[in-house]
Amino acid sequence: MPKVVCLCKEVINLSDIPSPNQLLMIEDVKYDKYFDSIDAEKLYEEMTLVVRCQNCKRLYVYENGFENDPLIYSLDRP
User: Fold this and answer.
1) Whole domain around residue 33: which residue ranges?
2) Within a domain: residue 57?
3) Which of 10, 16, 44, 49 could make a disulfide contact with 6, Cβ separation 3.0–4.6 Å?
4) Per-residue confidence in pLDDT tens, the chain, 78 aa
5) Can you tell me whether residue 9 is helix, strand or coil?
């Protein structure tokens, strides 16, 4: 997953590891099962990939994997 082109035309680079443009999100209920013993690989598999545009702050939420279309969120105001 090298890049995403934002609706504002900004090219979001995802090739850096770790990436400053990639966020990981997990439901509180799913996270809770890792409370006492963290297995980083399994925890990562539970997380949802979110890509953030540094230009317009739009968020691309890939709930169903990077190969499927994301949900797109933008700011109501700056």
Assistant:
1) 3-73
2) yes
3) 10
4) 578 999 999 999 988 888 889 998 888 888 787 777 787 788 888 888 999 999 999 999 999 888 899 999 998 876
5) coil
Phi and psi torsions of 64, nearest 5°: -115, 30
Quick check: is 20 in a domain? Answer: yes
Residue 41 lies in a domain: yes
In this predicted structure, what is the pLDDT of residue 1?
A: 52
Instruction: For residues 52 and 8, give the distance between their C-alpha atoms in angstroms, rounded to a whole number.
Output: 12
For residue 78, being part of any structural domain is answered with: no
Q: Which residues contact 29 (CB under 8 A, 6 or more apart)?
A: none
What is the C-alpha separation between 2 and 17, in angstroms, rounded?
11
